[in-house]
């Protein structure tokens, strides 16, 4: 018929809704790895608060975002590992690059002559340092085994290191696998070709670097491939979760992963990364209204040079 001179077109639409219940992160077959900062220095003034911290962790977990941490060179409290093992199927024990007994200096335990890298662009892999990694891991892994949650743990390292660092990967992760055969090793390596005998269980790479042949060979070797996105890819033609991007892009990332059927997990960078604008130190963040999603801080994450136009406004950057 006609409606004000415009032809009316009726299209019938049938919608079927399935009663699907998502598995918990602990029971999910999909892996998730998270970049978060939970050290006292970063998490102040809440760190150590026996009331706030557990509630915050529970809130994150209920939104399928457990308080995992990729870059912790200092072991976390055992209570944190126990919590993660009860709510998630993946959690990081340690970043093997920059392991320390305390958070004052990554290599504070070593004599000055041993703190230098073997090669300029690759992490330290001296014999003494590799032995120290195993020494730090051993009591933690033993306690995780006693609690029955060691199968959910992994160690991380070699974050976006170049292919020239393959000897360091083999030496450090080879030592880890020799000492703890069942402990999963994860590395983020955007290499054009991955040797399948590398002592890495999970090869994480930027989703735009996906190569079907390389992925197939890796998976055929009994290993897993995870994807990730972070500050890059940032081109407008690439999917990302920057806060100024359409929300649909976040959904399309996972449809892309599902379409290839290659990745079995995703690495998220980062859940609580937020550097305030210059001259504005971190402080407790307050909502302007209890009923509206407005806050009294600039949501952009300022990185690099201290200029207001140098920002990283990633949706994953602050929860």
Structural class category: alpha/beta
Q: Percent of residues in beta strands?
A: 5-15%
Global shape: globular
| Physical arrangement of strands within the biggest beta sheet | 3-9-8-7-6-5-4
Flag low-confidence runs: 102-118, 305-319
Radius of gyration: 22 Å
Give the ordered list of helices and strands: EEEHHHEHEHEEHEHEEE
Instruction: Output mean pLDDT.
Output: 82
Distance between the termini: 50 Å
Largest sheet, strands/sense/barrel: 7 strands, parallel
- Please give the number of β-strands: 11
Helical amount: 25-40%
Care to describe what's here?
The protein has 319 residues and is an alpha/beta fold. 26% of the residues lie in helices and 14% in strands. The protein contains seven helices and eleven strands. It has helices at 40-43, 52-62, 78-87, 127-147, 166-179, 212-220, 248-260, and strands spanning 2-3, 6-7, 31-35, 91-95, 153-157, 184-188, 202-206, 224-229, 265-269, 301-302, 311-312. The strands form three sheets. Strands 3-9-8-7-6-5-4 form a seven-stranded parallel sheet. Strands 1-2 form a two-stranded antiparallel ribbon. Helix 4 (127-147) packs across helix 5 (166-179). The longest helix is centred in the middle third of the chain and has 21 residues, at 127-147. The chain is globular. The termini are far apart. The model is unreliable at 102-118 and 305-319 (pLDDT under 50).
């Amino acid at each position: 018929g006609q409606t004000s001179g415009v032809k009316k077109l009726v299209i019938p639409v049938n919608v079927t809704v399935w009663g699907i219940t998502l598995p918990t992160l602990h029971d999910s077959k999909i892996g998730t790895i998270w970049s978060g900062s939970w050290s006292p220095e970063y998490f102040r003034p809440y760190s150590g608060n026996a009331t706030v911290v557990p509630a915050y962790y529970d809130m994150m977990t209920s939104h399928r975002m457990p308080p995992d941490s990729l870059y912790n060179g200092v072991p976390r409290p055992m209570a944190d590992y126990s919590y993660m093992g009860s709510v998630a199927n993946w959690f990081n024990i340690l970043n093997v690059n920059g392991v320390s007994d305390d958070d004052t200096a990554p290599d504070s335990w070593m004599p000055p002559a041993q703190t230098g890298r073997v090669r300029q662009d690759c992490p330290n892999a001296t014999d003494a340092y590799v032995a120290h990694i195993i020494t730090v891991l051993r009591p933690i892994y033993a306690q995780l085994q006693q609690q029955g949650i060691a199968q959910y743990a992994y160690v991380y390292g070699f974050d976006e290191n170049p292919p020239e660092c393959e000897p360091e990967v083999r030496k450090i992760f080879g030592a880890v696998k020799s000492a703890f055969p069942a402990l999963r090793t994860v590395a983020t390596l955007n290499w054009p070709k991955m040797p399948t005998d590398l002592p890495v269980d999970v090869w994480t790479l930027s989703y735009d670097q996906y190569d079907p042949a390389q992925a197939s060979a890796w998976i055929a070797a009994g290993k897993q491939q995870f994807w990730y996105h972070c500050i890059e890819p940032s081109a407008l033609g690439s999917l990302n979760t920057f806060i100024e991007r359409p929300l649909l892009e976040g959904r399309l990332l996972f449809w892309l992963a599902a379409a290839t059927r290659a990745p079995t997990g995703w690495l998220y960078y980062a859940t609580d990364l937020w550097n305030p604008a210059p001259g504005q130190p971190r402080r407790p963040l307050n909502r302007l209204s209890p009923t509206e999603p407005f806050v009294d801080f600039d949501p952009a994450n300022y990185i690099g040079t201290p200029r207001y136009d140098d920002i990283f406004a990633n949706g994953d950057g602050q929860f």
